[in-house]
Amino acid sequence: MVVEGRGACGSMLPRRRAPVVGSRSPTGASRRRRRRVPAYARGRSRLRLWADPAAAGRGYDGRMASIATRLRLPVQVQDTLLAVSVALLQLLGSDRAAGNQPGTRLLGDPDGLGYLLLVAGGLILLVRRRWPVAVFLITTAIGLVYYAAGYPDGPATIGLFVATYTLTAQGDGHRSLQIVAAGIAVLAVGWLLAADLESFNPAGWVFFRIGTAVMAAALGESVRGRRVLAAEAVERAARAEQTKEQEARRRVDAERLRIAREVHDTVAHAIAVINVQAGVTAHVLDKRPEQARETLVVIEQTSARALGELRATLGMLRDAEDRRAPTPGLGQVEELVGMAREAGLDVKLEVASPARELPSATDQAAYRILQESITNVIRHAGPARVTVWLTYGPDDLELRVADDGRGPLATGAESGRGIVGMRERAALLGGELSAGPRPGGGFQVQASLPLPPEPAASP
Predict the structure, then answer these.
(1) Residue 344 carries which DSSP code?
(2) Closest to 269 in 3D by CA, of 368, 348, 338, 363
(3) Alpha-carbon distance 312 to 141, whole Å?
(4) Could you give the count of Cα atoms lying within 13 Å of 127 in the half-sphere of its Cβ?
């Protein structure tokens, strides 16, 4: 017979223990959980708790705050305890102080009026949050009647001080202060008239009550000011967050439009040239195969160049430093004019002044405007003579592209995105662009882009 565990004879056979629910066995997982956390990991954890209030709420401070919130009494219970405590303190304290003031009136004379005033001055605090002005006025009247009747000094104005604090803490900062100032002034006059100022003790109590009332008003106003500042800080933070989101959205939209213009200008120009060259190829394929071969080479070169520019543009979405192709500029205007000539246009380039170094944004915008203008001529004007003028002025760069075509440019160009995109490019730099039919026929695009002043030559 196999015995598991210790029998009556004290067998030393090993006993199989049943697993205990909730026990911590020294398993590998528990050993890993008890492993010391490195200092840098603890630092990152604290940073995460500081940056994430929800995560901090799960820490020690969050648990303590949660416990304090659960232990907090409801507002009505707090006001009830405060009102009863103030009423008892005023009643018992004033009754005890009456024994040291033999010349004062008894609290029960006549018919317990003094007791009634002390109890009412405390219990009225039950509604101090709902009607703070009314509670302050009632406690002010109670304070005047109590001391005018000649009742003994003591803690009889605690309810008045609480009401003063409540009114200034929950008020609007202007009207509430006026009411409190008027009430304290009336109380000061009434207390001074009712007190025996020839004795030091009664006069001291009067000035103590006046000073305490002023301090209660100042404390309430301080709390109200801090609450207003906190609310304004929260509002400013919310407004700043909203402004930040709007600015981020605006930048995203501007970047989207910029990339759309780049893709449009690159693809539209290449497609227009390829379309013209493909038509020429289809027309001369059987009659002049050598010319067809040349147009196919132009198509290949144009498509390869367009793919390179498109790849560079889309590469900026992945990495701002991804520059697989140079940024186009007026330094490539000869190449642009050569592509237009290969597409069948008679292009003449005139530069009216020596070229100068341009800002990269202006250089790229000028190139894209010329590119889109020539593309529109290829697409809409058909075979035409085109003149491109460039004028480098001291304050601006003048661009003009004019053609003598007879195609549907005058009626169809405005319906696309090309001219709109050119205007947007010019407007972003603070320039102007005009486009429209010429009086003698054809179409013209004219743009003016501002330039920074040239640096003065060193002597």
Answers:
(1) T
(2) 368
(3) 83
(4) 12
Q: Which residues of the chain have pLDDT under 70?
A: 1-66, 68-69, 199-200, 261-262, 264-269, 272, 275-277, 279-280, 282-286, 291-293, 306, 308-327, 382, 406-417, 455-459
| CATH annotation of 332-453 | 3.30.565.10
Task: Answer whether the bond into residue 459 is a cis peptide, omega within 30°.
Answer: no
Residue closest to 121 by CA, chosen among 136, 106, 104 = 136
> What SS3 state is found at 187?
helix
- pTM of the model as a whole: 0.47
- How high is the pLDDT of residue 256? 72
Tokens matching residue 9: 């004879």
How far apart are the C-alpha atoms of 248 and 406, rounded to whole Å? 46
The ranges assigned to domains in the chain are: 75-240, 332-453
Which amino acid is it at 315?
G
- What are 333-366's pLDDT values in tens digits? 888 888 788 777 888 888 888 888 888 888 888 8
8 Å CB contact between 379 and 269 = no
Q: Which of 418, 445, 450, 453 is nearest to 431 (CA)?
A: 450
> Which H or E element spans position 183?
helix 175-194
CA atoms within 13 A on the CB side of 310: 15
CA distances from 334 to 92, 117, 268, 310, 351 (A): 104, 101, 19, 20, 11
Give pLDDT tens digits for 45-87: 444 433 444 444 445 555 665 676 677 788 888 889 999 999 9
Which pairing describes strands 396-403 and 443-450: parallel, antiparallel, or unpaired?
antiparallel
First to last CA, the chain: 116
Asked if residue 370 lies in contact with residue 340, where contact means CB atoms within 8 angstroms, the answer is: no
Sign of the CA dihedral 209, 211, 214, 219?
Answer: negative
What are 411's two structure tokens? 């009626």
Strand partners of residue 400: 389, 446
Contacts of 317 (CB under 8 A, 6+ apart): 259
Quote the CA–CA distance of 220 and 172 in Å, as a whole number: 11
276 touches 378 (CB < 8 A): yes
